[in-house]
């Protein structure tokens, strides 16, 4: 079977030019997708990343350079070629300085286009050398294009080959268990069980029984023998999540298990040998916990042979749009929704938000907007509502101004019962200018005549 053809997204409002370009791209062995404006292009990229974007400079909703700048913020490695019938040398130089791969005048020579496509794809391939596809699925649940995360994943893959104990540190919601699962899956123990327990979610006596097991009659309610999680993970991997929350008395027993490689169930007179790889995770600073006398130093050095630290989502903003769109597609399948993506303004809000709850919080926000969206393209207003004020003062100026303009116009038209003359007068703008503002925000004054009568 031949290598699948790479997808190229063509953005052009002229149907004839669109058809011609698509045919040229098809003829030189690539798979063309085509849209007519920038907003459709951004939604398309969010759903299915092409290998290259070829865009007309003059688009109905934003120019090609503005589209490039927007794509660059979301996906810095996606190459773009801009076409124009009226470009100048100065414009071409300015575009390439900003990072556009090439600036080509139309009509386009087919051979020249083929050469530039090949060169642009080669550049994109070099920037995307470490992709998920090349990793045979072991890390498919870790969605990232962050260089910081890729470095961490490379370390994880190296350590997975050994049996060394690994301590994974990171804020709540960063995906510590996902990284542990990936380490297990690519390790020699990958075909054996992976067992995870949140050590901070249960009282000490119950945690001891869950970890090490108990015998029948060991305590009130122990009506049968219970095999603990260490024995359940035999041959595989156990993740001790939130290990920093384990009480000191139980830390002593855990240290003995790790040293002797055997467990003694509660109430048992004999120990049971175990063959388990131990991964630990915590959101706490264990060095500070040791200084405060809440975590044993000998246990710390036993579990911290290799330390991996997951950066918070706010430190890898290049991942936010990628993760959000992957979550959206999965949730659309789950709930039977048909959504095409996030609007550019909605994505900008997601990227700018502080995300104290990290990926888990992002998942909650995306789930809310997927459930509540009444339009195929998720709007900024719905995202802003879901964020519940977390955008604070870091929303981009243009986004804030656009939202203010829209709300201002809506309130004016409500107050004047849809009268453009009255609304323009109150805004101290000419009717022509006011109509342009309405068109910019896709508002129809007639809607507000109906609004008042409905009230």
Any overview of this molecule?
By secondary structure, the chain is an alpha/beta fold. It has four domains: 7-127, 3-Layer(aba) Sandwich (Rossmann fold), CATH 3.40.50.2300; 147-309, 3-Layer(aba) Sandwich (Rossmann fold), CATH 3.40.50.300; 314-394, Helicase, Ruva Protein, domain 3, CATH 1.10.8; 397-454. The chain is 48% helix and 12% strand. The protein has 20 helices and 14 strands. The chain has helices at residues 15-27, 38-47, 64-74, 89-98, 110-127, 147-160, 176-186, 204-212, 229-232, 248-260, 286-291, 297-303, 320-335, 344-352, 358-372, 380-387, 397-415, 420-427, 431-440, 446-454, and strands at 7-11, 31-35, 52-56, 80-84, 102-105, 166-169, 194-198, 237-241, 262-263, 272-273, 277-282, 306-309, 341-342, 377-378. Strands 2-1-3-4-5 form a five-stranded parallel beta sheet, sandwiched between helices. Strands 7-8-11-6-12 form a five-stranded parallel beta sheet. Strands 9-10 form a two-stranded antiparallel ribbon. Strand 4 (80-84), helix 4 and strand 5 form a beta-alpha-beta unit. The protein is elongated and about 90 Å long. Mean pLDDT is 83; it is low at 126-136, 390-394 and 451-455.
């Amino acid at each position: 079977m031949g290598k699948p053809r790479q997808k190229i997204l063509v953005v052009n409002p002229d149907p004839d030019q669109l058809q011609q370009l698509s045919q040229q791209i098809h003829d030189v062995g690539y798979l063309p997708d085509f849209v007519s404006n920038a907003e459709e292009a951004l939604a398309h990229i969010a759903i299915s990343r092409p290998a290259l974007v070829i865009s007309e400079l003059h688009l109905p909703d934003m120019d090609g350079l503005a589209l490039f700048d927007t794509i660059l913020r979301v996906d810095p490695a996606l190459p773009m070629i801009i076409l124009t019938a009226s470009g100048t040398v100065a414009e071409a130089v300015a575009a390439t300085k900003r990072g556009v791969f090439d600036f080509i005048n139309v009509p386009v020579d087919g051979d020249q286009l083929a050469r530039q496509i090949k060169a642009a794809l080669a550049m994109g391939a070099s920037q995307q050398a470490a992709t998920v596809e090349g990793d045979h699925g072991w890390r498919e649940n870790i969605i990232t294009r962050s260089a910081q995360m890729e470095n961490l994943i490379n370390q994880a893959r190296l350590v997975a080959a050994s049996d060394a104990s690994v301590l994974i540190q990171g804020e709540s919601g960063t995906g510590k268990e996902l990284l542990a699962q990936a380490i297990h899956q690519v390790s020699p123990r990958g075909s054996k069980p992976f067992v995870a327990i949140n050590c901070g979610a249960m009282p000490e006596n119950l945690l001891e029984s869950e970890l090490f097991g108990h015998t029948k009659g060991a305590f009130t309610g122990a009506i049968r023998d219970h095999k603990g999680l260490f024995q359940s993970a035999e041959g595989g991997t156990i993740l001790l999540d939130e290990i920093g929350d384990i009480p000191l008395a139980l830390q002593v027993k855990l240290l003995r298990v790790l040293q002797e490689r055997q467990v003694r169930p509660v109430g048992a007179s004999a120990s049971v040998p175990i063959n388990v790889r131990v991964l630990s995770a915590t959101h706490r600073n264990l060095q500070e916990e040791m200084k405060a006398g809440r975590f044993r130093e000998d246990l710390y050095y036993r579990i911290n042979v290799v330390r991996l630290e997951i950066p918070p989502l706010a430190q890898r903003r290049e991942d936010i749009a990628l993760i959000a769109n992957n979550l959206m597609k999965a949730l659309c399948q789950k709930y039977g929704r048909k959504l095409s993506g996030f609007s550019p303004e909605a994505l900008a809000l997601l990227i700018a938000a502080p995300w104290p709850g990290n990926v888990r919080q992002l998942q909650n926000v995306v789930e809310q907007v997927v459930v509540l969206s009444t339009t195929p393209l998720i709007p900024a207003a719905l995202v802003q509502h879901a964020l519940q004020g977390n955008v604070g003062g870091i929303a981009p100026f243009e986004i804030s101004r656009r939202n203010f303009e829209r709300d201002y116009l809506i309130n004016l038209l409500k107050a004047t019962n849809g009268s453009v003359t009255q609304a323009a007068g109150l805004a101290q703008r000419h009717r022509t200018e006011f109509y342009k503002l309405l068109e910019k925000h896709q508002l129809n004054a007639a809607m507000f005549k109906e609004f008042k009568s409905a009230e």
